[in-house]
Structures are given as C-alpha cells and as structure tokens.
Amino acid sequence: MRKVVLVTGASSGVGRALCQRLLEADDGLHLCLACRNRARAEAARDALLAARPRAQVSTVQVDVSDLRSVLRAARELRRRFQRLDYVYLNAGIMPSPHLNIKALFSSLFSRRVVHVLSTAEGLLTQEDRITADGLQEVFVTNVFGHFVLVQELESLLCHGDGPSRLIWTSSRSARRANFSLEDVQHSSGREPYSSSKYALDLLSVALNRNFNQRGLFSSVACPGTMLTNLTYGILPSFLWTLMMPLIWLVRFFANAFTLTPSNGAEALVWLFHQKPESLNPLTKYLSATTGFGSNYVTTQKMDLSEDTAEKLYQSLLDLAQRVRVTILDAD
Ligand SMILES: NC(=O)C1=CN([C@@H]2O[C@H](COP(=O)(O)OP(=O)(O)OC[C@H]3O[C@@H](n4cnc5c(N)ncnc54)[C@H](OP(=O)(O)O)[C@@H]3O)[C@@H](O)[C@H]2O)C=CC1
Ligand SMILES: CC(C)=CCC[C@@H](C)[C@H]1CC[C@H]2C3=C(CC[C@]12C)[C@@]1(C)CCC(=O)C[C@@H]1CC3
Fold first, then answer.
1. Closest ligand 1 atom to Cα of 225
2. Interatomic CA distance for residues 143 and 91, integer angstroms
3. Would you please indicate which residues are annotated as catalytic (active-site) residues?
4. What's the rounded Cα separation, in Å, for the pair 269 and 59?
5. Which atom of ligand 2 is nearest to the CA of 92?
6. Rounded to the nearest whole angstrom, what is the distance from the C-alpha of residue 231 to the centroid of ligand 1?
7. Among protein residues, the one whose CA lies closest to atom 4 of ligand 1
8. pLDDT value at position 38?
9. Which residues have C-beta atoms less than 6 Å from ligand 1?
10. Which of 272, 140, 151 is nearest to 219 (CA)?
C-alpha cells in the first residue's frame, strides 16, 4: 500500500522543496499538498508530477489560520484516506518583520556573532494581528490551526496499524524567554514568531507523552535560514543578492545558513527515513550546510520542561474546545 504524506504549506519554500525531495527518494508515495491557495497548489502538483509521473499527488485546500477551513479540510481528508503515515506541519508566517539594523551591526563585532546570526536573537520584531476567530494570527497559523488539524485527524493517525508521524517545522529562533504560559498567543509581546516556534516545540513534546502509546510520534525540525518568501519579507531579494558574498563567508562559521529550500529540507527528509522509536522527543533536528555547500543534520537539546509542555497542551485543549463551541454556535 502507498504511504500517504500530508504537507501543509507545500506551495512554496521548504514545503515545496520537501515534496520534491521526498518523491526523489520514493516516487511510490501518495503526497497530499495542503495549501491555502488552490491555484498555487495545482501549480506545485503539476511541477511535481512532471518530474515524477509515477507518483500520486493530490491537493487539499486549507487555510490554517481559519478554523472553519481546518475543520472542512480534516473532514475531506477523513473522507479520502484511511490513514496518514506522515504529516508535515510546515505552513508558517512571519508578518511585518522589523530588522534592527543597529543590533545587527553591533552583533557583527561581538563574541556572540555566530549565535545571533543563527537565531536572530535581539534582531527581529513583528506586528501581529487578530483573525476573524479572535485569535492572534501568528499563533493560530504556526501552532493552533495545526493543533486542531491533528486533533481532527486523530482517527487517521492512531489507526493501530504501525506508527504515524508528525514532523513540525520549527526554528532556531524559538526562545524560552519569548514564551509565557500566561500569554500563549503572545498578544502582548513583539516577538510572536519566536514565541510560536517555542510553543510548537513544547507541543511536540506533549504530543509524544500523550500519543506514543497509541502509535503517534512527533518530531521537531529546523530548516535553517533559507531564501524564501518568508525571508524576502525581512529584506528584499536584491539586498540578499548584495549580501551573498558575505553570507558565503559567514557560512564557514555559522552552519545555519542553508540558503536554499532544498538544503533546508535536509532534516525534514532525514526524519522521514528514521524509525520514530530511535528519535529523542526532547531533541530538535537541524538542517545545516557547510562553507563548501554540503548538507548534514545536527541536533540541539530543546530548552524546555515537560511540565510546561503538558500545561501548554492542556491550555490548547481548553482553547480548542471553546473555539469549537463558538464556531458551532455561529453556524
Ligand atoms: N525561511 C527561513 O529561513 C525559515 C523558515 N522556517 C519555517 O519554515 C516554514 C516554511 O516557511 P518558508 O518555506 O520559509 O516560507 P514560505 O513563505 O515560502 O512558505 C510558507 C508556506 O506556508 C503557507 N502558509 C502561510 N500561511 C498559511 C495559512 N494561513 N494556511 C495555509 N498555508 C499557509 C504558504 O502558502 P502561500 O504559498 O499561499 O503563501 C507557503 O506555502 C515556516 O513554518 C517557517 O516558519 C523556519 C526557519 C527558517
Ligand atoms: C551578514 C548577514 C549574515 C546578514 C543577514 C542579517 C539578517 C537578515 C539575518 C541574520 C539572522 C537571520 C535569521 C533569520 C532571518 C534573516 C536573519 C535575521 C530567521 C529569523 C528566519 C526565520 C527563522 O525561523 C529563523 C532565522 C534565524 C536567523
């Protein structure tokens, strides 16, 4: 039977490159591209099939920031499939980023330069907004919409017939100091992106605790810094092009500059090939590229407590319950 792999945010960037690399490794897969824009999803599907005609590629429309759309997509997936072997929870946003140029320059002359250039600590803030469901957009897109999707797909993921896998696209910029259990949506801070990535690291740990016995395993990967629509929102493409000689030099010291989405997909593809029991739930798997352009996977112990992970999980369960009631009342 063909393995079924669902990828959110498959229409561009690392999600699209991941699909291409998965089919290069095994064109006997069924890939389902979960995208918010139908035309971009179809274009990605056509390009994948042109390169691998033997593969099966389908699309499903989902806007993970809109919970009605998530419920609709999950219903459609339950209708189409009996099981999902892998779900890549990859769609993500960083809206209206502001790069602190002064902090960037001073970091270039500090001893923490490699750390700052790998994590963007102290360099970036964002403007968040509230969605029609009354939730913070970065939180709902990067974390909560995916959480509700996983809940809705439970019957396809916990089927008792071998393990299923969740693989989250996190980030090296996930930072404990930017997350608070009292404000899980980061409604009162200026670093919602970092907070959301830290929240999904916690969530992955909690999902392992609650679902491993039922055959569902969750992992967290970071693709490194790549040139995608997300990073072109931070600086325009011509500036990236101008900085490229400097970045190639920096890459000899900072392995996080994977630069292309295909390089960035390294850890996500590597995880696909691993036995879930062999993975550490408290480890983040990082794509890395050497100064000479070779890709490899490295690991980082996540800076979190299992107690906080469980508390976040419980608060997301509560929130999901409340939101469902509101949606059902309105319909
Ligand atoms: N670029 C980088 O350096 C890094 C990126 N990441 C993470 O990688 C992931 C992919 O980003 P990347 O490839 O860089 O950027 P892209 O902007 O190229 O890709 C983001 C993908 O998410 C989709 N998406 C965004 N919002 C929604 C939504 N509401 N519903 C459904 N899909 C949505 C986009 O769809 P559409 O095509 O319609 O816009 C797109 O396919 C993100 O989670 C990001 O945080 C992590 C570390 C570094
Ligand atoms: C000289 C040089 C390397 C300049 C680049 C400066 C900045 C534009 C980058 C430095 C650290 C980068 C970074 C990201 C974006 C680009 C930088 C701020 C991310 C925030 C992209 C999305 C992530 O998930 C994490 C990345 C951390 C590092």
1. 3
2. 9
3. 193
4. 20
5. 24
6. 10
7. 225
8. 98
9. 8-9, 11-15, 35-37, 40, 62-65, 90-93, 141, 169, 171, 222-223, 225-226, 228-231, 261
10. 272
The interface pTM score, or ipTM, of the predicted complex is 0.99
Beta bridge partners, 87, equal 6, 166
Secondary-structure class of domain 4-330 per CATH: alpha beta
228 CA to centre of ligand 1 in angstroms? 8
User: Is the C-alpha dihedral spanning 247, 252, 253, 255 positive or negative?
Assistant: positive
Helix (H) or strand (E) holding 298: strand 295-301
Break the chain into its structural domains and give their ranges.
Answer: 4-330
Kindly state the average pLDDT of the residues 302-314.
98
Q: If pLDDT is split at 50, 70 and 90, which confidence band does 331 have?
A: confident
What CA–CA distance (Å, rounded) separates 217 from 157? 9
Average pLDDT, whole number, for the chain?
Answer: 97
Cβ of 258 below 6 Å from ligand 2: no
Strand order in the sheet with 164-169: 56-61, 30-35, 4-8, 86-89, 164-169, 216-222, 283-289, 295-301
The answer for 293, left when phi > 0, alpha when psi is -120 to 50, beta otherwise, is left
Atom of ligand 1 nearest to the CA of 8: 32
Give the distance (Å) from ligand 2 centre to CA of residue 240: 11
Ligand nearest, relative to CA of residue 115: 2
pTM greater than the 0.90 cutoff: yes
- Tell whether the model's pLDDT for residue 278 goes beyond 80: yes
Cα atoms in the Cβ-side hemisphere of radius 13 Å centred on 161 = 9
Q: How confident is the model at residue 326 (pLDDT cuts 50, 70, 90)?
A: confident
Q: What's the CA-to-centroid distance between 198 and ligand 2, angstroms?
A: 17
Confidence of residue 56 (pLDDT cuts 50, 70, 90): very high
| Whether residue 4 has its Cβ less than 6 Å from ligand 2 | no
